Amino acid sequence: MSIVDFEIDEVRKLCENVVPHSKIIACTKDPALLRVDIQSNQYYRQFTVCLRFPSEYPKQSVLIELKSKTLSEKFLQGLTGLCERQVKQEYLGKPHCIKVLQFLQQYVNDNPLCVCFDEIQQLRKDLGEDASTDQLKLKQKSSCVHFTVKGGEYYYRVKAVIPDDYPLHCVDLQQQETNLPAVLLRYLNGQSREIARQCVEPPLRMPKGKTAADFQPAPSLYRTLKFCLEATKGFHLEECPICGKLVLPQTPAELEADDNKDAFVERVYCGHLFHQGCLKLYLSEPPFPKGGKLCPAKSRHLRTDATYYMGGGMQGSKIPTILPDKGGACGIRLAHDRWVVNVKMAESRWAQKQARQRELEEVVDFLK
Questions:
Q1: I need a surface site. Which of 111, 216, 258, 311 has the fewest CB within 10 A?
Q2: Do residues 47 and 137 both lie within one domain?
Q3: Which residues form the domain of 285?
Q4: Which GO terms describe its molecular function (predicted)?
Q5: CA 109 – CA 144 distance, rounded (Å)
Q6: 145 and 104, same structural domain?
Q7: Per-residue pLDDT tens for 260-297?
Q8: Quick one: 247 and 347 in the same domain?
Q9: Which 8-state DSSP code applies to residue 13?
Q10: How far apart are CA 345 and CA 333, in angstroms?
């Protein structure tokens, strides 16, 4: 009996016992071929191993091919290369099929973040070559990603926990920290969670001709962290649409914490940032159009709540490309929970202000 025949017989007898959650699909001597499914409690970490025997086995490494319906092709290619190096370093000259299967299974079990390999690689690319190494930290044991993004002197830090059944369920965002104003921290936290939720839950109103059964969960790690990345990088560059000056001071220590001061930062529904004093002045002066005033910004905000970075499960799992709006002025009705004023009330306040001003002018003229 040749060593290849002996090896195949050994795999047929021992594989499913010494490699937990494995299942032999094919085990033939002519041609010499092994095909084994490596299963797991986590469906999205299952893969198939195809092993072919070269003519000078075991002096030559067994030929390895990995396939999976869920794991990234790039990840499988990298894992194949890693396994081949392991064989050359430790297993050559002796039968090693079982060793290969055990190594592959152990590696995938020890690296649960393999289910989002492509998303992590894309995030690294977006951070750029000049990004510091502490901006994207992977914690395989706890299956989480620590992400820090910087814009000027400002930063936003978040921990994204990957569930066992990812991407069927969305990432869990925890431990958010920032030196941005509280209004922007609430926005980043709330919007990123909403993006993650919409990746895995069908919309209440399905597109025409579609049903909830047509919805497919989409990976949520990249979408949520990409949103946090672009938003945080852009905050310190945003200008107040009224005065044209930067909304945030260059130094976080100069941020106005008193919500009664004019320099306090406000964010309205369309996404634009204003100095509170500028927003008050704009809303209190005529004209007062029916339906309320519109945002005077020169263009639509990239992260308008209703349109930016939503789940896209109906379109499949492809990572979205968001293009800037090249239209004219923003034109979205100004809305804010602290600034809800109907037209009649605004006109009345303006009239009272003008009446007081005229009275003061009359007193000044009289005293002269």
A1: 258
A2: no
A3: 238-312+328-367
A4: zinc ion binding
A5: 14
A6: no
A7: 898 999 988 888 999 999 988 888 777 666 777 888 88
A8: yes
A9: H
A10: 17
